[in-house]
Amino acid sequence: MTNSNQSNGGSTVTETPELTGKVALVTGGSRGIGAAVAKRLAAAGAAVAVTYVRAADQARAVVKDIEAAGGKAVAIQADLTESDAAVAVVEQTVRDLGRIDILVNNAGFLAYGAFDEVTAEDLDRALAVDVRSIFLASQSAARHMGDEGRIISIGSCFNGRVPGSNFVVQAMAKTALIGFTKALARELGPRGITVTAVDPGPIDTDMNPAAGESGDFQRGLTALGRFGEAEDIAAAVAFLAGPGGRYVTGTSLAVDGGYTA
User: Fold this and answer.
1) DSSP state, 228?
2) CATH number for the 17-255 domain, one of 3.90.400.10, 3.40.50.720, 3.40.50.1240, 3.40.710.10?
3) What's the CA gap between 19 and 42, in Å, rounded?
4) Paired sense of beta strands 47-52 and 102-105, if any
5) Which of 45, 133, 186, 231 measures 20 to 30 Å from 9, CA to CA?
6) Cα Rg of the chain, angstroms
């Protein structure tokens, strides 16, 4: 987990990864964007906890990949629709890894459907995962964080543009993150804890494959004319979690290929 470069004098200089000694919790970290974020933070030196609901094999594979690269990781089963789960995963992270410095609120629930067909059950589930769990996990994590703590939530390009129908619940839930991020940044700023969000555009994952039936439509909405990759979001999170993000708070970063341009 170190980088070695040759100096002009021929001696080897070893650089310590910038997140060495830090502990990160990535909710929904068993696949897609969450898995990419977990691996990226681990590559930067952090010990990482990832949560999953049912994809135990995928979560274990993420842990195995991190360990194979010389890092440390644990997988925690949690259904964030349950009222006490968000706090429980933070507390287990602290027990298993000793502390928490970085919280990445990545877990989400896609409630896709026409406005007049969305059920109360779908609405409750979306708000439970995309709003309530983020509030509670952040509240719990902040109690353990010291100076330079990081709370980073994965939002959506729908915060700035909704190009069609059937996304009312998704847009509502993700837009709530904007107010949350700004207000919490004010609350925690005096303690040196930053609060930010990353808003992905069309990202090629199993939930939204570039080869899917809406792929061409989504590509046409971007300035770059293509989907992004999960690693693009992971790179943004790593920046915000590291020294480069120390003066960035109360804002969201669009990583959307110009979707909201």
Assistant:
1) B
2) 3.40.50.720
3) 8
4) unpaired
5) 45
6) 18
This prediction has a pTM of 0.93
Residue showing tokens 């708000």: 127
* Span between the terminal Cα atoms of the chain, in Å: 38
* Structural tokens at position 109: 């629930």
User: Can you read off the two tokens belonging to residue 231?
Assistant: 């690693």
Position 258 pLDDT exceeds 60? yes
205 C-beta neighbours (distance < 10 Å), count: 20
pLDDT one-digit tens code per residue, 114-166: 999 999 999 999 999 999 999 999 999 999 999 999 999 999 999 889 988 99
Spatial separation of the C-alpha atoms in residues 213 and 229, rounded to whole Å: 18
